[in-house]
What does this fold into?
Amino acid sequence: MAGLRDEAAAIAAELTELRRSIHADPEIGLELPRTQRKVLDALDPLPVEVSVGQRLSSVTAVLRGGRPGPTVLLRADMDALPLTERSEVSYAARQPGAMHACGHDLHTAMLAGAARLLSARQPDLAGSVVFMFQPGEEGSGGARLMIEEGVLDAAGARPVAAYALHVASGLLPLGLVASRAGTMLAAADTLHVTVHGRGGHGSQPQHAADPIPAACEIVLALQTMVTRQFDVFDPVVVTVGSFHAGTADNVIPDDAQLHATVRSFSPASRTAIRTSALRLVRDIATAHGLTVTADYEDGYPVTVNNDAELAFAEQTVGDVLGAGQFVAAPNPIPGAEDFSYVLNEVPGAYLMLGAVPASADPLTAPFNHSAYAVFDDAALPDGAALYAGLALGRLARGGSRAD
Ligand SMILES: [Zn+2]
It folds into this structure.
């Protein structure tokens, strides 16, 4: 473990160059051919076995150590978001409409850096490391597709542990790592509702079947459901972010549509809210003599850290980055992550790494997904060293559970 951070600092300039080149040329979704090319070029000089995805432009690299041992998986996501960058960094996105506003460009460079650091120790490495470079984290479920295409079996044996890092451009000061035992991120599902009525003249609602009041009642009743049916210590969040009906003040429309994001923090409450929400929607429509089409679309599952792996990761943060660099996050993050699909198969941990620019106030710096978000390159060597340290330390523990 000793020396990893110095070794990472020695390649900081190259990590910055790779990160900035990805940042300036962001790609969205499952197909990131130019980003994939940059990763392949970075891995090219290394003693790793590389394969690429069929249904997405993923890169999987396997480093086989010189000594026998288990397999550990490290994951970085690579995709950008569909917004126009408004930060004023010199390496800002060259085209409008796409931006690395969630810092996945840093993850990619960090993992490429970790592949270099670990490759330099290949003869002594006791086991294998799988490097998972994943497109389509932002909604496309790239991790699930990579699992379907065999990333968990890339080294021939299932990983005993899997780790992911995620940078933050606000809140978490530069270089600090935050995570928690148990639930780390929410599940994010979507409720789609169409209330079907019968249109007519706004002056004579008795001859029509107005879907708007029933749809409004559904919106409010969903909030009552949250507070009356769910444990305040196992919370859920329902936000109706889209509501559309009608065209004119004097026309009763045929239908009304609403779409809600539904966040939950345990598999049990996730199952419960699906049942409750669908029942509520259907029964309110029925109470008003209307019908409804309701669709509950499963998004990413709850991201749950394994307690023993989290304890190991916390210790590794201390070993690699120094004592006091790990912060126990008091609460889960209500965002969602498709690394959850990996953690549903392999015990592991998901860690946040502060990348707030050194000159900015963490409390006010624009957070991830903002057009103004800026991530400090100074986090790159820390991230690369931490990824490498997690693999190195975990392989040293052998094939058993981390505890
Ligand atoms: Zn992200």
User: Anything to note?
Assistant: Residues 267-287 form the longest helix (21 residues). The chain has two domains: 4-184+303-396, 187-300. The pocket of zinc ion is lined by residues 102, 104, 137, 166 (CB under 6 Å).
